[in-house]
Write a structure and sequence with these properties.
Elements: E1 8-11, H1 21-34, H2 41-48, H3 53-62, H4 71-84, H5 93-102, E2 107-111, H6 115-122, H7 126-130, E3 136-138, H8 139-142, H9 150-159, E4 166-170, H10 173-181, E5 185-189, H11 196-199, E6 204-206, H12 212-215
Parallel strand pairs: 1-2, 1-4, 2-3, 4-5, 5-6
Helix pairs in contact: 1-4, 4-6
């Protein structure tokens, strides 16, 4: 029997554990339009996926959006309210965690989202949220958002696993680049496109969460 190759796994949250990105991009599209900037969905995802809301604010203003100075805080409050109405888990992710548990492989979350956002989304699934107890790490809280490697390196240290023995699961080029910068293998989850932007930064691309168990050799 093939032994698992990795000693720990670090998951992004939005778009990997929870299906939160459609709501976020719907809200963002409305805000951009109201503030003078209309972008196609694929352009929005290419420019903003995997970043922080403050990063969105800076990029959008540079592109011509007339976002006010308090937009970041206001957007967060409206986003949290919308996500609290119901955010589903990504299909198949619970089976992946079951496979990791069966092989005694620890796992953590390394997200550019805020701690509060993770509590809003993951908190809707208490049993699932409990599986990450003490291992939910926010790049915003640490002051080291992706693509810097620090968030993933912090998660590895907390799990007492060397970076080269960790795998990262992320759905954005920003996160996959952070994994590469941290010296970690990365599996890029491309649920809605061909994943070329993920493979371009070194990720092994997969398209359905059911594929991940085999990729991790569980």
């Amino acid at each position: 029997m093939t032994r698992p190759h990795f000693h720990a796994v670090i998951f992004d949250c939005d778009g990997v554990l929870v299906d939160s990105e459609p709501a976020a991009f719907d809200l963002l599209a409305d805000d951009l339009s109201r503030h003078g900037l209309t972008l196609p969905r694929d352009r929005m995802e290419r420019d903003f996926l995997g970043g922080t809301i403050r990063g969105v604010w800076l990029k959008a203003r540079a592109l011509g959006a007339t976002f006010p100075d308090d937009w970041v805080e206001d957007f967060y409050e409206r986003l949290y309210a919308r996500l609290a109405q119901g955010t589903a888990l990504i299909p198949g992710i619970e089976a992946v965690l079951d496979g990791l548990d069966a092989n005694h492989i620890p796992y953590a979350v390394g997200s550019n989202g805020s701690d509060r956002k993770m509590e809003v989304t993951l908190g809707q699934h208490p049993a699932f949220r409990a599986r990450f107890q003490g291992r939910l790490f926010s790049g915003q809280t640490l002051g080291t958002p992706k693509p810097a490697p620090d968030l993933f390196l912090h998660a590895a240290r907390e799990m007492k696993v060397k970076p080269q023995n960790c795998a990262v699961i992320d759905d954005s080029p920003t996160g996959c680049l952070a994994a590469r910068n941290a010296g970690m293998a990365c599996f890029g989850f491309a649920a809605h496109d061909d994943g070329k932007s993920l493979s371009a930064v070194g990720a092994t691309v997969f398209h359905d969460m059911s594929e991940l168990t085999a990729l991790l050799r569980l």
